[in-house]
Design goal:
C-N_Hydrolase_sf; six-stranded mixed β-sheet; 27% helix; Nitrilase/N-carbamoyl-D-aminoacid amidohydrolase; N-carbamoylputrescine amidase activity; 16 strands; alpha/beta; C-N_Hydrolase; 289 residues; 7 helices; Carbon-nitrogen hydrolase
Length: 289
């Protein structure tokens, strides 16, 4: 089975829900015209990234009219949308929704909120506490958001729950000196994406945004990597565009026949060693619950 996947490398406007919703409508319409099966938008695609005190103003409940409209748009084209989700407890999460056949099939709340350098997410947002896979018409999937990927444990957890395709919405700013015409951060992301795809024999779809906020640029470079580590699609840096590539879902099976690392993983060993390490650091059981 082959799936046509679209990466919406967009330039959202900070804090302007209505304008950003219009961008989504436009790219979804373009996705339909290109016969896209799955269209992935970047991190916080509905709101922009450096929100700070604007977080409560742009947050959406999952039963909001905007989300319901996006649910309807997912009929005929599956969608990944980035937003600030407001929970029933009035907590705010950097979240990504997977929408399919007119319904929310999965919501991932970003687990790792960066607070170093130019990042300050945890001051304004609550942390997600779970990594889960979910069924889609393209197989078993997982969503991880940007910084989540910088912690190998999240990808490991997704792999151990059977993920065939890893979807990565991102808002990665351009950082690091250029080497040979390429930013260091771009080289790092490309290395991570290829390593995770090959090591865990899963497809990787990385969608990064473009544009500027508060003088910070976002570099784009969205890509799709096969389970064998082959780059199937690559977007230009700094350019807003709809990128469309074809992913062969049967490649997952072929890769796992030739690469048995995932089959041979000793989950019991990992669990026992993590328990030992946890007891060493938290002998009284007073760790973060």
């Amino acid at each position: 089975m082959k799936a046509k996947i679209g990466l919406a490398q967009i330039n959202p406007t900070l804090g302007d829900l209505q304008r950003n919703l219009e961008i989504h409508r436009d790219f979804i319409d373009r996705g339909h015209r290109s016969s896209v099966d799955l269209l992935i938008f970047p991190e916080l695609s509905l709101t922009g990234y450096f929100l700070k005190d604007m977080v409560p103003q742009v947050a959406l409940r999952l039963d909001s009219p905007v989300v319901r409209e996006l649910e309807e748009m997912s009929r005929g084209i599956s969608l990944v949308i980035g937003l600030v989700e407001e929970s029933e407890e009035a907590l705010f999460y950097n979240a990504a929704l997977y929408l399919e056949d007119g319904a929310i099939r999965h919501c991932h709340r970003k687990v790792y909120l960066p607070t170093y350098g130019l990042f300050d997410e945890q001051r304004y947002l609550a942390r997600g506490r779970t990594v889960r896979t979910f069924k889609s018409r393209f197989g078993q999937m997982a969503i991880l958001i940007c910084e989540d990927l910088w912690h190998v444990s999240t990808v490991y957890l997704a792999a151990q729950q059977g993920a065939d395709l890893l979807l990565i919405p991102a808002a990665s700013p351009g950082r690091g000196a250029e080497r040979g015409g390429k930013l260091e951060i771009a080289e790092t992301w490309e290395a991570m994406n290829r390593t995770y795809a090959t090591l865990f024999t899963m497809g990787v779809c990385f969608t990064n945004r473009v544009g500027y906020e508060d003088g910070v640029n976002f570099w784009g470079g969205s890509e799709i990597i096969s389970p064998a580590g082959e780059r199937l699609l690559k977007g230009n840096d700094f350019e807003e565009n709809l990128l469309v590539g074809v992913f062969d879902l049967d490649e997952v099976r072929r890769s796992r026949i030739s690469n048995t690392v995932r089959r041979d993983e000793d989950l019991d060993l990992t669990f026992r060693e993590l328990q030992r390490i946890y007891r060493k650091h938290f002998p009284e059981g007073d760790g973060d619950e």
